[in-house]
Design the sequence.
């Protein structure tokens, strides 16, 4: 039986977008959990634990991304990543 997935939409609110420092924060947070989190921008889907893939999204301020988590700690992982976006990666 496939694992259920948890989906959430977030908006990139910080001025610099999902730049290197913000992407490192996402990767660091995502690696804390026993979960797989995929971040999607339109049709471009990347692993939340891969810095190069995250940077390839080129997500700018105002763009919406989808977080999709699966695994034992999917809820906690998606919640934690959503908080990073809501806090604007502590930049503003």
Sequence:
């Amino acid at each position: 039986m496939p694992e259920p997935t948890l989906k959430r939409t977030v908006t990139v609110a910080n001025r610099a977008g999902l730049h290197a420092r913000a992407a490192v924060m996402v990767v660091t947070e995502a690696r804390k959990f026993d979960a797989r989190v995929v971040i999607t921008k339109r049709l471009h889907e990347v692993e939340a634990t891969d810095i190069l893939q995250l940077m390839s999204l080129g997500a700018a301020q105002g763009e919406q991304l989808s977080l999709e988590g699966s695994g034992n700690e999917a809820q906690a992982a998606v919640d934690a990543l959503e908080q990073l976006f809501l806090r604007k990666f502590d930049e503003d």
Q: What stands out?
A: The mean pLDDT is 95. Strands lie at 5-11, 36-41, 44-47, 64-70.
